[in-house]
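Quick one: C-alpha cells for this chain, please?
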Amino acid sequence: MLHLPPIAALRALAAAARHLSFTKAAQELNITQSAVSHQIKHIEEIWDLKLFERLPRRLELTHAGERLSMIVDDFLKGLTTELETLKADAGHTALRVEVLPSLAVKWLVPRLQQFREDHPEVDVWLSTHHDDIAGLDRGEFDAVIRLGDGHYDRHKSWHLMRDYVLPVARPRFLDEVGRPETPADLCKLPLLLRYSGILSPGWEYWFKYVGVPEEMYEDALKDGTRFADTNMAIQAAFDGQGVVLARTAHVWEELRTGRLERLFDITCPSDVSVDLVCRPERAETPAFVAFRDWLLEEAKKSQIEWDEAEGVNQP
C-alpha cells in the first residue's frame, strides 16, 4: 500500500495549493512558513513527485501537484464535515450555515424557530462573517446566504429574493430637523455611511437611481461616522444620529411598527439578490434539502410582502 503522509502534511499541501504561497498557508494553519515548506518536501519525498515549482517570487503547482491537491482538499473537506456531523447529538444532523450579520439578525433568526419545530432532527449552526465563499471553499460550513449576482461557478445556488433600497430615519429625528421634500434635500442631512466592501447598494447607487447629480451629493458622502455593518448604522438611526440607507429585509418590521419612517415613496430595487449557495457534495443531503425548501418558502413570502408594499406586480 502507498505510504500516506500525516494529516498535518496533507493540510499544508491543501493550504499551499489554495494560496500558492507557503507564507499564506502558514498563516492559515497558524504554523511557521518553514514548517509548511518541510511538510511539502516530506510529501514530495514520500510520493517521489514534485508538487510545486518554486519560482523566485511565487509558487506554481506542477501537473501532479494540481491533481493531488484537489483530491487532498476534497478528502479534508469531507472528513471535516462528517466529523462535525458525527459529533452532534445522536439522531441530529448539524448544518453549518454562514450568513451576513444584518440578514441573520433582521430576517433569518426571527424565523428559525419555525424551522426547528418542523425539523427537530436538524441543528442549524449559524456563523456571521463576510469571507463567505472562501470559507465555503475551505469546508468551514455547508452553505452560505449572501448578497450576489447569482453566478457561482464552483457551487450550487438558489435565488432567494431581491429586495428594495430605501432611506429611513427615526420619526423624532425628522421632527427635529425637518422632513426633506426632495431626494436632493437629503444632502443637507447627516447621512449614516458604510465603509466595508460588502456587495451591497450604497448611497451613490440610490442617488444615481433617483436622479440626483453627483455634484450635489458628493460632499455629503465625504465626512461623518462610517459603519462596517448595517445593523450598527440602523442602530445609529434609532438613536437619532441621521438617515440610513437600508434594504427592505433590514427594516421591514421597524417600518411596520413605526420605529423608523420611510422618507420617499420611491421604488428603488436593490442591484444584488439574496442567494443560497451550497457545497456540491452537500446539496442533496436530507438536512440541507429540508433547510433549502423551507428557506425558499420563507423567502417567497417576504418577496410577496415587499413587492405588494412597493406596488410591484408578481411575475
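The chain is about 45% helix and 15% strand.
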